[in-house]
Amino acid sequence: MVAAKSPIVLALLLLGCASAFPAGRTSFVSTGKPAAGARDLGVIFNTSDLLLDLESYQGGLGVKIGLDGFKLRAMADVLLNTGFNPFSLTVGAVLEKHILPGPVSLYWGPSAQMGVTLVAKRIDSDNWTQNLAWEIISAGVVAGVELFVFDFLSIFAEYNLALTLGLNLDRMSVAGSVSTEGQFTYNLDLGLGNSAMFGIVIYLMRKKG
Questions:
Q1: Which residue of 22, 101, 133, 152 shows the fewest CB atoms closer than 10 Å?
Q2: Residue 175 burial by Cβ neighbours in a 10 Å radius (0-12, 13-18, 19+)
Q3: Average per-residue pLDDT in the chain?
Q4: For residue 138, what pLDDT is reported?
């Protein structure tokens, strides 16, 4: 993952790239696909590790549906690691408003997600620790860019300013005696959206504008 040192500089460069293409051009390599339809419909794949380590996987699947003036993106992300034994599941959605359609399309919109992360360490049945972090709700605003390599394939990345409310539970068992501690958490953060992953959209149907 590579983040831009200056979001303002990145936005100016993308704006310059978008304005360099003739009006009406929809991708860097025009193919005439997919078939025209009343709505966009795309399948999203993402992963944080392109090498796909056998002991760890973080990625997800989603759908993208184009409505009049907006695009609704819904995703589910999973983290698995057999070595350290964490597991997380996150579901969320973004409503994209594209302001510069074309091969380089800038967008913004509201986002919301929720999820759970479990980290456990087990010595035996009587001695173990467990941390359960509930992301009750995370709501914010995203600003991103979608680059259409082909008419039917794009990649995207975004920043997400979000306020997250959660519940953190720590459980410990020592010689069979279990104790539990819990606390509510909150965090306001500006970070890479889409779970800081590399996102690809394959459009099964794309509306012709």
A1: 22
A2: exposed
A3: 77
A4: 92
Q: pLDDT band for position 34 (50/70/90)? A: low
d(CA 109, CA 184): 27
Please report, as a single letter, which amino acid is at residue 183.
Q
Q: Would you call 8 helix, strand, or coil by DSSP?
A: helix
Secondary structure (DSSP) of 146-181:
EEEEETTEEEEEEEEEEEEEEEEEEEEEETTEEEEE
> Reduced to 3 states, what is the DSSP secondary structure of residue 24?
coil
- Using CA atoms, how far residue 69 sits from 51, 149, 150, 194, in Å, is 36, 22, 21, 21
Residue 151: per-residue pLDDT: 82
Tokens of residue 135, six digits: 């992301």
Model pTM score: 0.74
DSSP state of 29: B
Say how far apart CA 97 and CA 64 lie, in whole Å. 13
Q: Is the pLDDT of residue 192 over 90?
A: no
Domain 7-18+40-205 has CATH 3.20.20.70: no
200-209: burial string, b at 16+ Cβ within 10 Å, e else: bbebebbeee
